[in-house]
Design brief:
This protein has a single domain (3-346), classed as Aldolase class I (TIM Barrel, Alpha-Beta Barrel). The chain is α/β, with parallel strands linked by helices and 349 residues long. The chain is built from 13 helices and 9 strands. The chain has a 9-stranded mixed β-sheet, sandwiched between helices. It has helices at residues 3-15, 53-61, 82-92, 108-120, 136-143, 148-160, 181-191, 226-237, 243-261, 304-307, 310-320, 330-339, 341-346, and strands spanning 24-28, 68-72, 98-103, 125-131, 166-172, 200-203, 274-277, 282-284, 294-295. The relative contact order is 0.14. The protein is globular. The chain is 40% helix and 12% strand. Bound molecules: iron/sulfur cluster (2 copies). Residues 33, 35, 37, 40, 42-43, 73-75, 104, 131 line the site of one iron/sulfur cluster. One iron/sulfur cluster (SF4) is lined by residues 264, 268, 270, 285-286, 288-289, 319, 324-327, 332.
Amino acid sequence: MNSWVKLSTDVLSSNFGKLGLPYKLTYIVTKECHSRCVNCKIWRIKPQNELTLDEVTQFARNSPFLSWIDFTGGEPTDRPDFVQVVKAFLDHCPNLIFVHFPCNGLKPDRIEQVAKEIIALKPKRFVVTVSIDGPSKVNDGIRGIKGDFTSAVETYRRLSQLKELDVFVGMTLYPNNVHTLDQMVSEIQAIIPEFSYKKVHVNVPHVSGHYYGNTEHTDERPSATIPDVIKSLMKKRGIPLKPFEWVERLYHNQVAKYIETGKTPIDCSSIMSSTYLAEEGTLYPCSIWDAPLGNIRQSGYSLVPLVQSARSKLMREKIKKKDCPNCWTPCDAYPSIAASIIKTTMGVG
Ligand code: SF4
Ligand code: SF4
């Protein structure tokens, strides 16, 4: 079956709760990271017991149903064999369409080299996000590295010259940077005049014990001004022209509801459409809920028995009742939006 037909069929099945295996995976290739972000503790972790390339290859061989993988970290490009990891999935997952990785932009040479090597593997659609959390001074404070903004913009500039990939800036909106989006865009435009608001993806801050290790922020609510900032961003971007821009628009539309209620604004499709693989092989429903489904090292390097287990069925029931931490992070929200498309746009289902 053609990969796009397979993905469309999966999305359609997810709308009726009938999808058997997830099509999207978020995989933490390493927790190595040289940033010093104040809102994330990953950089404090000494990576250990991470899946080896052999193990990753076995897992990839057992995951031919995947259409979309976010290879994340830590800083994914800090894993020396990162390109081989991506290659293992491209070799064994014939339906893989979307290859995405976020990066901290700290090492423009290394990131550009990795991007070029992945391009040579000919992924169908390849996207990189460079994290920038505000104009120079604000960004460097949040990300804990003097000169981070300069390196990240240089990384963006180099990647934007590679025609075979799409590059975006990813900004998380914290209380101390939420008002600086316009200033960030103008500072980037001073270096890259063609940079536009269409190239900015924004995200709401989240807490995760097993991922960011930042549970000390559990009681903090996202800034109430985020919806206004997002509304203004949507206006500047104009009408979405591509399917992904529409999904992003739907994500933005629901941010206010999430911030107001603290509840995931639509039915979450985690475990059914998407799942999260930690660097040492533990599978979780998502990047937020610290509720392991098992470890692929004990399941023959396959996620199939883990997502089809009695425990996963129980967790799906809990997710349907919103008996989970509730979140609105793009990694998991986009498949959930896709799984609700019939219900939300046509009023059925
Ligand atoms: S947010 Fe990303 S770049 Fe920052 S410390 Fe965590 S993993 Fe590293
Ligand atoms: S809504 Fe719950 S299960 Fe779904 S991604 Fe968020 S925390 Fe995870």
